[in-house]
Design goal:
Helix content: 10-25%
Strand content: 15-25%
Strand order of the largest sheet: 4-3-5
Number of strands: 7
Largest sheet: 3 strands, antiparallel
Radius of gyration: 16 Å
Oligomer: single chain
Length: 106
């Protein structure tokens, strides 16, 4: 099948696994989700105060919000340049802006 996105796997260089699950919410442009889930593609925005806002794709986001998701792969082809080094640098800068989260298992 064609790939429209990608993500990091559960293990990264001896790190503990990240416990999360993903739900299919859209198939070929058509909303498709389990009962009780919000169907349709989403867009994530960063707001000027550092918060995040999730909205259905194609809807107006929050005032002053910057959309964070950009299409990288479409119909199996890369559709935009992707600078991995710049992404790593941005993630390193962003981590300083995030409040630490304690381990709920502690």
């Amino acid at each position: 099948k064609d790939v429209d996105g990608f993500g990091v796997g559960g293990y990264v260089s001896n790190a503990d696994p990240v416990d999360f699950a993903l739900d299919i919410v859209e198939v070929e442009g058509e909303p498709a989700a389990k009962r009780g889930k919000l169907s349709g593609a989403k867009q994530v925005y960063r707001t000027p105060d550092g918060g995040h806002y999730i909205a259905l794709a194609g809807r107006v986001g929050p005032s002053g919000g910057t959309p964070l998701q950009k299409r990288l792969v479409e119909d199996g082809s890369i559709v935009r340049d992707f600078d991995l080094d710049a992404t790593i640098d941005r993630a390193a800068r962003d981590i300083d802006r995030v409040d630490p989260v304690s381990d709920p298992g502690e």
